[in-house]
Amino acid sequence: MNKNTLPALALMLASMAGADEETELDRPTFYASQVETVAAEVTAINLETREVTLLSEDGEILNIVAPEEARNLGQVRVGDILYAEYEETLSIEVVANDGYGPGAAQVEGLQRAAEGKLPGMAAVETTVITAKVDEINLEANSFKLRGPEGNVTEYTAHNPENLKRAKVGDLVVITVTEAVAISMERAKE
């Protein structure tokens, strides 16, 4: 995951506010997702070096070296089709602060194909970063967030109306999830 992506994506929300109303605010949220799916045919395989040559649907040739963790490579034959799907999601949510401060956490998971089956795997990584709203400036259309390491960064709001929908002290919860799934399909006989 590209850690530089998080601040840029957070700017997309840019929705901090400083209303002093006692009523519960309809705090801003943002969600985006993108999925990319590719298929490629195995055109060559060297089991000693673990090098696999793939031909993508658009005619691009790709040489990869399968890591030792990729089990069952001996099951793959020329003509087999490799399918890969990559998904990245981003959610940004402004929530009332119940006494918590900025923080960060990351969780990863991996599942591989069973022994003796065609190679395949699924992996997921989720990163959650929580920042605290330190300041809101409606006139300047800006806000400041305090990150997990105590750093304070100022942003310009993408949608100025959202600045009225949050409060100083609120938390901004940024969740980025990346998932990849790879499967093989036997070549048509």
Précis, in short:
Helices cover 5% and strands 51% of the residues.
List the helices and strands and how they pair.
Elements: H1 5-13, E1 29-46, E2 51-56, E3 61-65, E4 81-95, E5 103-112, E6 120-137, E7 142-146, E8 152-156, E9 171-185
Antiparallel strand pairs: 1-2, 1-4, 2-3, 4-9, 5-6, 6-7, 6-9, 7-8
Low-pLDDT ranges: 1-23
- For the residues shown, what is the average pLDDT? 87
Task: Tell me the span between the first and last alpha carbons.
Answer: 39 Å
- Total of DSSP H or I helical runs spanning 4+ residues: 1
Largest sheet, strands/sense/barrel: 9 strands, antiparallel
Helix content: under 10%
Verbal overview:
With 189 residues, the protein is mainly beta. It has one domain (5-36, 85-185). It is built from 1 helix and 9 strands. The chain has one helix at residues 5-13, and strands at residues 29-46, 51-56, 61-65, 81-95, 103-112, 120-137, 142-146, 152-156, 171-185. Strands 1, 2, 3, 4, 5, 6, 7, 8 and 9 form a 9-stranded antiparallel beta sheet that branches. Strand 7 and strand 8 (152-156) form a beta hairpin. The longest helix is centred in the N-terminal third of the chain and has 9 residues, at 5-13. 18% of the residues are buried. The model is unreliable at 1-23 (pLDDT under 50).
